[in-house]
Design brief:
Strand content: 15-25%
Oligomer: single chain
Largest sheet: 6 strands, antiparallel
Shape: elongated
Distance between the termini: 24 Å
Helix content: 55-70%
Mean pLDDT: 83
Number of domains: 2
Amino acid sequence: MKVIEKYIFKNFIANLFIYLSILSILLLLNYVYQLIYSIVAHKTPLLYSIKLFTYLFPSVLSLTIPITILLSILITLSTMNETKELLVVETLGINRLFFFLKLFLLILILSLGLIYFNNNVVPKSYKEFRTTYSELVTSRPSVNFSDNQTLIIQNKKIIVKKTQDLGNKMLIKNIMIYTPVEEHNSIQTIFAENAYVYNDSDDNLILDLYNGTSITASKSDYSSVTFLKFGNYKYIIYNDYMKKLISKTYSLRELTTQQLISEFIKETNNKRKTYILSEFTLRYSISLSLLSFSLLGTVLGLKIKRGAKPLSFASTIGIVTIYYFLLTTSMSFIENYSLVIDFSIAHIIMQLPNILLVMIAFLLHLFSK
């Protein structure tokens, strides 16, 4: 029996490490795609870039570990089923589920460990990421202006005459900004004597303009022109890529469990409380998904007799898609109904996707007899 147990464990652990590595790298590449502009624009040193991705990695693992647990169980069991290895175990008069008890124990330990990981390690590492990233983007402007230069950024044309590098800022003398304003079918042209250029913590490009004029003309009616003189005018070019990745609305991700509870107690706005509850219970739901995924994966793995790997991949995609759809629905329910301002009720609602997967696993096992 110990030989069979070791064999199952060996296959499971091997599959887990292989697919965890592949999936984590793929998900990390998604972050690389969104960060690459800022890394290149700010001429980030290699070690600094590695530091950024190191802080992001725990967030990636919190998502990939449950998925790879499901995939590894499916591939391990379906492959053994396809090669008739499980049939040999049954011919010895041994219940094949007996050999998976220790595997479930391992997954239970991993699930409990993931609860701590999601509630403490991930928030702290994400906070470090935001801090490090803010230091990067505010260290110097993302756009390198030079004398007598014309630049097109997004749909804006910027013409500069003379520049001076001030380290984390750049001074521009005599600047013109040409901007189409689509919603008003007009064109805005701004002239300024001086401008200080820098990036804020969200990597938006800020042009602090001094002593200038703004002229807005309608495209359809050239006689309609608006002149505005100003002493100081702040012009912002937003970084939409980074807005998707790093947003102030996701600041709750930086808080540990105890900090979320403290924030909930202090908060007086019911809407804000629902967001705190959603974030708090989401961490437990994802952590406990290891158990629901492993149960459903075991039942399905024992049913797959041909095409082990293709069907395992297809089953994983289907289960994960359904699970995260249900999870998003649960989150939306908690966040949009202010009546759900109770930890126990919120926990039940957020655990419904896991409960549903366990019920499906039980029904499949029951009707397969």
